[in-house]
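tool_log.txt
---
The assistant was asked to compare two proteins side by side. It first ran the structure predictor on the initial sequence, then on the second. Raw inputs and outputs are pasted verbatim so the downstream comparison step can read them without reformatting.
(1)
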Amino acid sequence: MTQREVQGGLSDLIRMQSGAELFPSTRNFVHARGLVLLFVCAAELIAQVNRITAPVDNARRTVLTGHGHPLARVGFDRGAVDSSLALPSMTLMLKQSPSQQAELAQLLAAQQDPSSPAYHHWLTPEEYADRFGASPDDIAKMTNWLTAQGFTVTAIARGRTWISFSGTAGQVAHALGAEIHNYEVSGELHYASSTEPTIPAAFGTVVQSIRGLNDFRMKPMLKPHGAVPAASQQPLYTSPTSGNHFIAPDDFATIYDIKPLYIAGINGSGQKLVVAGQTQINISDIETFRSRFNLPASVPQIMLVPGTIDPGISQSDLPEADLDLELAGAAAPNASILFLYSNDVMNAVQYAIDQNLAPVISISYGSCEPETPTSDALTFQQWAQQGNAQGITWVAASGDSGGADCISQGSSNDGEASVDVPASIPEVTGMGGTEFSGGTGQFWSSTNNTNSGSAFGYIPEIVWNDSTPGNPGASGGGASMIFAKPSWQTGPGVPNNSARNVPDLSLTASADHDGFMIITGGQLQIYGGTSVASPSFAGIVTLLNQYVVTKGVQSSAGLGNINTKLYALAQTAAGAFHDITVGNNIVTVTCGARARNCTPGSYGFNAGTGYDEATGLGSIDVNSFFTAWSGGSVSSPRATPSVTVTAAAASITSSGSTTLTAIVSSTNGGTPTGTVSFSYNGVGLGTATLSGSGGSATASVTVSGTQLAVGSDSITAQYSGDASYSPAGASITINITAATGKPSIAGVTNGASFRQGFAPGGVLTIFGSSLAPGIFSASMVPLPTQLGGVTVSINGVTAPLYYVSASQLNIQIPYEMPANATVSLQIMNNGQTISSTFATQNVAPGIFTDANGALVPAKTASAGQIISLYLTGAGAVSPSIATGAAPPLGTAVANLPRPVQSLTVSVGGTVVQPQFAGIPPELVGVVQVNFAVPSGLSGSQSVVVNIGGVSSPPATLTIQ
């Protein structure tokens, strides 16, 4: 039984999933074994210049500089490691000849020049190898030499830019002259080379560096929120301590104007995105996040970089991985995402580029430049250049410690102006952070919509800086100490220096005002940091790849180094950017008695008009940004109007009505156009078109008291926005009083058969009058225990609600109820109560049918056809499931809850064994049964399900 078969039928309740492979696996990985001969044989065809021309003499050596790790200091040295220590992932990085370097620089510029024939003409790794890699003959010589020294060659790059190998510390000392020592840094033991490595002089023109001679790793760039909302306060998502709001995917899409693109079908479909990490993950967290926020039921493909160590679950890295995958997938909800991981996150980046896995790569890790070996920084740039040539856009977080990036690394207490690698690489887009600053304006609804969103529209931003003494938390930015300023980094505000400046762009990043909701470790957590900006923007770039293909701007996905165009657009399409002009990323550094390389003081930059080293070019209006990218006109940023709501009557009975009027006013003399949607608790009450002139327009709807709950109800008015004005909104409180008296119960029945028969976990239907003030339905799972001010309890246990109206309630009988017992039933409708009792059984099967008693969804079938029916009252299931809960999407078929009692199906008197019987994903208290229609029957036949010896009332099936 496949997952697809289990989820078939009831299309309005069950989402289909695709089992297709999203990304190529290791089948394209170029292993070294047997490859040297292939390269040598192909050399004459490629006719690439060999640069290793002298004999390989181990006695004649060349020193490779820049490998000393800045944290591998004499004071931290704990002596040489054991010679048997394994160094499992070393890489011989190869460099280009001067002519190759010049040709590559010309190509990268031409690929971003619309007037060039090479514009957006991306290379394959093999094409890159033939133009900018080492020759097959040189690869063979270096591979043979490594093998002769006792190393194991594990892989050769498709681009012929590196050779990976493994070995021991003893072999490294003998062959490369590098002594590996232990270093104790901030209580952690690491190993690193205490001397620069050497290679045979014959390799000097080809080998650039050796990576993997230390085990220092980059740090994640995320910040946790100080308080997580308690379960009783969800899903309002308003912090009980600060009053701040927390960001759902729907909020992010509203604030940054992505929703118009979703409506137009730009959602990531057909696109690929790589998220790099250094831990395994629990896929259930991603499934829970996507289900909770009504995102498509798609999960990432997970892949360990071949030939590297599996780190298992790293608790220090798991929140970062979950955050990256959830936010990248939230921005591009239909994209295919590959989570590529290793014990070193940069191994994942290296592999993704070499294998050309996706046109977008996101990484939320970094290390400050003063604590990064120069050889590593230059190696990362070489990867980025190859990625750009292949059409890859690499997005990275700029750091969380303002202008003094090293104090975030937790290892050295360095205090100096510094920026973060890899964000500082010119071929990488560095993402900084902003913080919402709404002031006295009304930017959030008091209630959530069905997607848990509550933002009305764009919220003004300042520089993210939540730093406190000893705890930096600010947008990383400043001037690189390693990389020179690229020619494209120009424009108002760009510093007049010779350095690469970061960040390039920013998005909201404050964990405190307002943090992102993330599911990690099975729990809802709140996070911020430039870690949220990087995957979010990577998702936006993924949408942009789809957009340019859909609009016919280019024939295939891939944008390469987008920085070239970013800085040009900032000067020609200012309306696509939100220029951040308030705040700073200044952090204060104090130096302890043992701190080295530490200069106390304040480090950072003020925001200003145009570019600044706190937020770069600012944030973007995504819809306008895409329009400008494809050559459309974007005149100026949209203004945010004010919205007020009035009611003809602020207090009505549940049988009355009132007219709500929204007034949308501009601040610049124009008149807003568009529509206003009114809603209560995420349920729509009506939409009206604005009408007016002279800077103000109105829209009205009439609302019935039956649409609301008794008590004080907050109603939201959401303005849609137009070409000149951003979306905005406001709320009003209406008081509803009950128009009828005490509720009454006319009867209780099985929710499927509408007959007597009730079992724990099953659906119960209650008929009566004055049971609810209006009609309300559950919009998500787990099911709510209150709808429209109505609650139901059985034996004192609050029951989940599917649906409530004045005359009918549908509830789930809690699994905690005893079987074969008489239980109490109490209904409370906004303060008015009624009580009754009913009897339970172990099982009480009832089949869901249409009004004529026919099976749903399959009323007809043919002999041998496999069909599904749905029933309730199956009693206990295994594995057990919480009352009101449903199996999450993606649950393996073998792990779905199944009835404990034996179950058979009888069709026209013929008993058949079901192929599957269990609760499918997203259904509560409902069992799906798949069975084959027996042969030898025709016409209308009775269908009965027997569970544990108890038969259901019959349904009918027409056999053709």
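(2)
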Amino acid sequence: MSRVSPSLAIFALIFTSILLLHLPLLRLPFFWDEAGYYIPAARDLLLTGSLIPHSPPSNAHPPLVMAYLAAWWKLLGFSVFVTRTAMLVVAAFSLLGVFRLGRKVANEQIALAVTACTALYPVFFAQSTMAHVDLAAAGFTFWALEAYLAGRWRGATAWFSLAVLAKETAVLAPVALLGWEILLRLPFGPWKGLLDLMRTASLKRCPHADARSSANREEDIEIGDRRNDHGRGQAFRSRGLAPFASLPAPVAVLVLWYAYHYSRTGYVFGNPEFFRYNVQATLSGVRIALAFLMRVWQTFGYMHLWVLMLLMLWAMTRDPLPQRRRIAVPVQLTFAVLALTFVVALSVVGGAVLARYMLTVVPLVILVAVATLWRRTQNWLWLTGLVSVAFVLALFFNPPYGFSPEDNLAYRDYVLMHQDAESFLEQRYPHARVLTAWPASDEITQPYLGYIRSPLRIVRIEDFSLDQVEGAAQERSRFDVALVFSTKYEPPRPLLDRWAAWERVKARFFGFHRDVPPSVAAQILGGRVVFIEKSTGQWVAVIEVEKLYEARAIKPEGHN
């Protein structure tokens, strides 16, 4: 009971804090991939009990998060508020995992600072209320890492297995650690010289090194504090065969899920279009190299992470403070192995290079960086506060290049604009045939997503690029109004997007296109803009196709 109570108290504190911060967001309708897959899949499970969704084509994602949401809806009823509160519970649980991991490898001061920074990091903050699976997979992985470093193999097996059941890419962590365990047990390997070199360099930089005994020097590679005796450099080579029994288990769990999915659908890795987009279409050397650079940026620089990295690099030019031990070199190397594995693997697969996929490793980077500030600067807490301020600014101010609105509060602007436009559409054109693209095509046909009360009829196109809009104009008789919107964030003063060569590269490898402005779309479609709303880098508009709708509005279909 003494072990459980502090964790429960910390969890309650974390949950209360983030609940207050997210209150204005808890009733926002579902956004983008939430509306396109995860909410319909969880709703299918609630209504039919099937782990395989039928409303959207199955993407073979493991069902844990969808089952979790369905359980909340079963108990409290289906609503946006219940869903977002349920995901906040997952976020608080994940932050508790960050705290426990930070305390294990460093100390409570660092753990508290890292937990606060992680909670405010824009990608984590935005994802905290969203019904995606990435944050849950990351949270279980943090708990698994803490158990792994403590040598609690059953706990590590359980948490890694839950992570895999949240999202399939979470299997990268136990696989990477298994490979690391094998490498550490080879009779000869590069890690020996690397550890000795890093330890020697650290002792040379410390002005008190000459006065320390060899026993004290050995403490320099301990994990955070003396409670973690497993942190010594040799610990990773002295744990017998336990890792080889524990770490493969989550892989077996994922294999069983895929076997079940195949038995029900005939596909192992999801529907053919999903597999083509996320695997087959990504296997290009140029694309992999570009995606690798983007993943490195998302891990170390994105959304003002560069502020923390610069402060860490500056701190490393200073001598360590007395009695402040670093995170053990073997633990830092373990974190590096995980980061490298995720960066490389998610550069090879994954059609969309989304920042939320890196949520498993970014908190590890924050942890090492904050621990470095603590070890080498007296004003580390002020510097960490500066980083938190930078993260908050990144929540509200968008970067000067294209990015996904789900990575900060830009998604809120999208949702509010679409609410206004679709409410206008529903009130003024309730019987119209609406030309639009995904995800608005789901927003105005599925009332449970939170945008409308009654479904509208749609004519769907892929996007609002010039080719698509001109193609739709050839069949104007099929629709009465058009709901057009920005499907890509467009920075007002672009940085890289000024380069035509970079735009061509994005179009070839990452599906980039430019949406035609509302006025141009109206001209091509032969209509007029009757509603428009704009936010920074985003817009939405309703276009009435002249004459065609007027004739139909007098006598809607189905009425005598």
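---
observation on (2): The radius of gyration is 26 Å. Confidence is low (pLDDT under 50) at residues 201-237, 551-560.
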